[in-house]
Amino acid sequence: MPPCYDPTTSEESLMNCWKTSLLLCVLLVPVTSTYAQEPPAGAPSRQQILNLFDAIQLRRTMEASQEVAMQSAVNTIQQMIRQRGVTLDPAMQVQMDTLMKGVMEDVRAVLSIDDMLEAVIPIYQRHFTVDDVNAIIAFQNSPVGKKMTSLQPVMMQESVQALTPLQQRAVPELMKRMNDRMEKVLPPTVTPVPPVPTQRN
Question: Maximum distance among all alpha carbons in the chain?
Answer without folding.
Answer: 65
